[in-house]
Amino acid sequence: MDNIKVFICEDESIVREGLRDMIPWEKYGFEFVGDAPDGEMALPMIRKLKPDVIITDITMPFMDGLSLSRIVMGELPNTKIIIISGYSDFEYARKAIELGVEQYLLKPVTRADMIKALEGIKQKITEESEQQNYISKYEQEFKKFERFSHRAFFEKLVEGSLSVQDIYEQANELHLNLTANGYNLVIFTISDANQSGYADDAANVMESLFNHFMQYPDYILFRCNLLSYAVLIKGDTDDLAQLGERCVDMIRQHCEEADSDLEWYAAVGVPTNRLSGLSRCYADANRAFAYRHLFPEKHIFTSESFKTEQYAPNAKDLDSLDVAKLDPMIIRNFVKNGTQAEVESFADEYIASLEIIENNFLFRYYLLVSIRVNVELALRETGVEDPDINFSMPSVDMEIATEEIRSRFVDILKSAITIRDAEAMKRSSDIIDSALRYIDSHYTDEDISLDSVAIASNISANYLSALFSQKVGLSFVEYVTKKRMERARQLLRKTDKRSGEIAGEVGYKDPRYFSFVFKKKHGCTPSQYRNGETEEE
Fold it and tell me: 340, exposed or middle or buried, with CB in 10 Å at 0-12, 13-18, 19+?
């Protein structure tokens, strides 16, 4: 670590200069940065220099050492303070201790006394810095990809399956502040234009977005399914529209600035002033989100889209309609990427966009044929070898009402998505089984990572992260840590190996970080666990 900065505050110039000159600062890992004759003059200098250690006399004109210490510890709580005094009065020492000063030395202060005090403080600063680094590393590891507990909570929240009391209780347990006058939701997805699912480019943009949203308390980002995320917006009712626009702008900016070809879509819900209203808000946003299948060239949809004509195509009459040019990819893309929750909205808007359907029987029949063919093609393209769709075509001379077409359309889409998801479930189970086997064989490797497991499983890291938490109920990091801790507990109880040896055997290069994680997980140090100083087994 860098040299520790020291500042001296002493009204007697001879004593101040003596303190300054008696210590070879650099030799002991310190840097002398300045001095002042009293607290009043010292304070602005301290605020600018931000020293790690302040050595101050307790009695000085204008502002004494205790007053200076009180102010500094309020503004710079990590600064360590050494009080020196010519008084042996206990009351001074008591007040200094109450303030939390590190050392209280009586004059005359010898070089040996000062070096001893400084080395003790240096050791404490080093330990605190190391501890803070461990905390940062731990938090980074567990925040890089979403924690399953957070994802499960938000899934229930937007489903509407939690009471208001349950919402606040579970949010409190997860340290989530949801208190606000109003709420809204933005659903979005980012994917590589040339690949299905999440590619690494999209994952990098998502990680950048995650870190960006973390800076704003008005936004809480969470994953709502394998390929989509949502942002919970909370704030004053009058500010929700602006907050929603800023949220979408953030997504747009990150995607447009990425040095890759990305497909992205975002949909904004209808604001609500109740947490219990978020399920309706989510449903509205999801309905707007379904528009991306109909209008893939657009990126942003609002919950009002389906109530207006802003996206409606121009009406066509029978003579001008070239049915051969109807884009079959709209249906096929929906079968590949749509969800059961979007089926009704998609079917309504797709049929409504083909206004000629009301006036022409032959076109209605053709539409059913096109639906059947493209649904089967889409399923084969997703890996379903022999799609068994329960969909019977009416006779060509049979009159088909528009409502019946809509009903048949909904049924075949729901059936297709069920088949697609069953096939995906089978493939994802195979992927997770493969990933778990790899982790179980390599969790003791120091360099195991989500990326290395993803490469071994032939899948992108971000997609594996989402799939892993969905299937296993833990994030990748949580699972690997769980495996390492289980093995560590066995070794602690069944062998006499030192903690440092065990750390290396379970995948931790730094024994102190291993002890930090162990204590985080079990509430005791490895040695305390070995000695039975915990009830956890």
Answer: exposed
Question: What six digits make up the tokens of 205?
Answer: 């943009």
Is pTM, for the whole model, over 0.70?
Answer: no
Cβ atoms of 444 and 505 within 8 Å: the answer is yes
Give me the helices (H) in 458-525, please: 461-472, 476-494, 499-505, 511-522
pLDDT range class, residue 135, cuts 50, 70, 90: confident
CATH 1.10.10.60 in the chain is located at 443-537
Cα radius of gyration (the chain): 32
Give residue 470's pLDDT band: very low, low, confident or very high (50, 70, 90).
confident
Element (H, E) at 529: helix 526-530
Q: Compute the average pLDDT of residues 94-100.
A: 73
> Which residues of the chain form CATH 3.40.50.2300?
4-142
Q: How confident is the model at residue 196 (pLDDT cuts 50, 70, 90)?
A: very low
Domain spanning 157-310 has what CATH number? 3.30.70.270
Q: Is 231 exposed, middle or buried (0-12, 13-18, 19+ CB in 10 A)?
A: buried
Alpha-carbon span 27 to 536, nearest angstrom: 46
Q: Looking at this protein, which amino acid is placed at residue 370?
A: S
List the CATH code of the domain at 4-142.
3.40.50.2300
* DSSP-derived secondary structure for 52-107: SEEEEES--SSS-HHHHHHHHHHH-TT-EEEEEES---HHHHHHHHHHT-SEEEES
In the chain, ranges of CATH 3.30.70.270 domains: 157-310
Q: Could you give the angle at the alpha carbon of 361 between the alpha carbons of 359 and 364, nearest 5°?
A: 95
Find out whether 16 and 37 touch, Cβ atoms under 8 Å.
yes
Regarding the domain delimited by 443-537, which CATH topology (the fold level of the hierarchy) does it fall under?
Arc Repressor Mutant, subunit A (1.10.10)
Q: Which residues contact 303 (CB under 8 A, 6 or more apart)?
A: 267, 268, 269, 270, 284, 285, 287, 288
Q: What is the pLDDT of residue 454?
A: 86
Q: How many CA atoms lie within 13 A of 109 on its CB side?
A: 31
Tokens of 408: 């048949």
CA-to-CA separations, 341 to 187, 282, 345, 435, in angstroms, rounded: 14, 11, 8, 30
